[in-house]
Amino acid sequence: MSVTIEGAGPLTGEITVPGDKSVSHRAVLLGSLANGETRISGFLTGEDCLSTVSCMQKLGVPVQVNGSDVTVNGVGLEGLREPEDILDCGNSGTTARLLLGVLAGQPFYSVMTGDSSLRKRPMGRVTKPLKQMGAEILGRDDGKLLPLSVLHGRLRPIHYNSPVASAQVKSAVLLAGLFADGVTAVTEPEKSRDHSERMLAAFGAEVEVDGNTVRVHGKPKLQGQTVRVPGDISSAAFFLVAASIVPGSDLLVKNVGVNPTRTGVLEVLKDMGADLELVNERVESGEPVADIRVRAKELQGVEIGGDIVPRLIDELPVLAVAAMFAKGKTVVRDAAELKVKETDRIAAVVEEFDKLGAAVTATEDGFVVEGGRPLSGAIAHSRGDHRIAMSLCVAALAAQGAVTVEEPESVAISYPNFWDTLQELGCRVSGF
Ligand code: S3P
Fold it and tell me: If you take atom 3 of ligand 1, which residue's CA is the nearest one?
């Protein structure tokens, strides 16, 4: 399958983006481990979060999905039961890694796997600390690749110094820590997204945050909650960039989560000269939320590196598109993590945007974009990666000619109504 996208003038009006993927996963997981009912609104019904729902159902948790309203009847910390079958995490790294933390503490046997992309992604970064806690995990490549079997284990608390700034690693260790007696801690080199620690505290766990270290006390009594999931800033980013680069645009993106551990994309776009304004700022279910107004403006190249990188890692492909339409050079450093996402996103950005005429070169830990060259219509491939597919579509809106994106189905991983929103904004979308 392929889809062909053509811009049709300025992007104007108001849009809402689907629920935050990270918050949606965590709401189902913690709701499952809590006592009593958890009601989630604004849940992302993308394929990744539905993988988490189906795994929790297989572990014996009643979860009802009714559009973006989800009800979880929590079974309590000790209420999960041995699954009859393999737990399929699909394309979702968050499902696999966070669930590993939960399964490591269970008194039963389980097996998990994922699709061909997920089976290539590193799981050793999670199984290593879990094994230090006493988990028994077996799998390909000495327990570093899915499929993985988790044998029943008794966990002890550790203080883990993670070599990578990864919310998935941090969350897996903290979730495992719920099943250990005593205090489990994780220190990371830079601060990654903090939804787990916020939500654990909201559900009643004792959590302490001290710089880049998070501690959780084991064996808490978690209580079901009402969770309002904000719109995903990672999904909003596609339209923030699109409206910045399509001349004459003036767009309001409503109800976007603006947790400071996620807003690197706003800081970089502002550095590039983008016209962004946060309005109606508020806090919902412990997460900062705002509407974001964006107006088209000429952008400048920038340098992106250091501790901002974990706060915008998922937005780098679409920031590369902003850089292609900016004056001058943009350099992205310290982003080697891009190589182990749904696809190697450094290679994908360099090779797929080359087909549109962009000048992007790969470096060891990022890429360099020479901005200001007009992009032309072309056929490019998503490589099965939702964020590469949507970044190509954003480029299409400001390119000279139509862009065909091959295998765009993965967009449903995080943004099921992306095509509808493009059409509502007057963009020409055909072929899906
Ligand atoms: C996520 C953490 C990030 C991010 C991913 C979602 C999460 O991954 O890229 O899309 O929900 O914890 P890493 O932990 O691998 O950096």
Answer: 167
Q: What local confidence, expressed as pLDDT, does residue 332 receive? A: 99
Report whether 60 contacts 75 (CB < 8 A). Answer: yes
Out of 3.65.10.10, 3.20.20.30, 3.30.300.30, 3.40.50.1000, the CATH code matching 21-228 is 3.65.10.10
pLDDT digits (tens, 9 = 90+) for 7-51: 989 999 999 999 999 999 999 999 999 999 999 999 999 999 999
Residue 261 has pLDDT above 80, yes or no: yes
Q: Give the CATH fold of the 2-19+230-430 domain.
A: UDP-n-acetylglucosamine1-carboxyvinyl-transferase; Chain (3.65.10)
Residues 321/324/330/335 CA torsion (nearest 10 deg): 30
Span from the CA of 417 to the centroid of ligand 1 (angstroms): 22
Alpha-carbon dihedral 52, 55, 172, 259, rounded to 10 degrees: 10
Is the C-beta atom of 168 inside 6 A of ligand 1?
yes
Residue 234 CA: nearest ligand 1 atom is: 10
Cite the active site residues.
314
The rounded Å distance from CA 286 to ligand 1 centre is 19
For a pocket test of ligand 1, which of 22, 171, 309 has the largest count of ligand atoms closer than 8 A to its C-beta?
A: 22
Q: What is the pLDDT, as a whole number, of residue 432?
A: 72
Residue 112 has pLDDT above 90, yes or no: yes
Q: Where are the domains of the chain?
A: 2-19+230-430, 21-228
